[in-house]
Amino acid sequence: MFILDKTLYFPPVNSANADGIVAFGGDLSPNRLILAYKSGIFPWYSEGYPITWYSPDPRMVLFPKDIKISKSMRQFLKKNLFEIRFNSAFADVIRHCKIISRDGQEGTWITDAMEESYIDLHQKGWAKSVEVYQNNALVGGLYGIDLGTVFCGESMFSKVSNASKVAFIWLADYLEKRNYKLIDCQVYNEHLDSLGAVEISRDKFFDYL
Question: For an engineered disulfide with 129, which of 29, 65, 93, 94 has Cβ 3.0 to 4.6 Å away?
């Protein structure tokens, strides 16, 4: 397995193991993180473990035009219960993604170092967020890395029913209007599958990237 040093480099993604792990180590500097995302690689690890870099095959993605909005969800959206803001409270969104309790998950993969690094990327214009407010309180949202034609989703949270789903639907519409190719959802989960995300091969993902 490849161990990174201070050199700004990643091995070819086709060297990844069956779990999609490309390398360990390195750092979370802005330059390395952007190189990673542009190379189809992302960090995912827990506190106390080495930084682990992934490029899974297959890859879960959403083509913005293919977002699925159920009939009940369309009715919910018509109620206008939420206010959506874009890129206005990034630090609050990542903090909520970090601390919120999730069913079947112990702890968080958003370490203190990752939180600091992504806030730095936000300040540099790379990391962006969608915020969902209700009665002027932040109740949901998501964040990710914006590569210009591909949005690399990282995490989302919801404190009230449907908040994160509304954020994701809003993002898909926003990106479709700006001709983005896809939202990178990284790995399969049922929630994203229900919203229209699909798995494609890593090679196909790189065609789009």
Answer: 93
CATH level 3 topology of 60-200: Aminopeptidase (3.40.630)
Entry pTM: 0.94
> What's the CATH code, domain 2-57?
3.30.70.3550
pLDDT in tens, 22-77: 999 999 999 999 999 999 999 999 888 999 999 999 999 999 999 999 999 999 99
Domain spans of the chain, in order of start:
2-57, 60-200
Token digits of residue 129: 């967020």
Three-class DSSP labels, the chain: CEEECCCCCCCCHHHCCCCCEEEEECCCCHHHHHHHHHCCCEECCCCCCCCEEECCCCEEEECHHHCCCCHHHHHHHHCCCCEEEECCCHHHHHHHHHHCCCCCCCCCCCCHHHHHHHHHHHHCCCEEEEEEEECCEEEEEEEEEECCCEEEEEEEEECCCCHHHHHHHHHHHHHHHCCCCEEEEECCCHHHHHCCCEEECHHHHHHHC
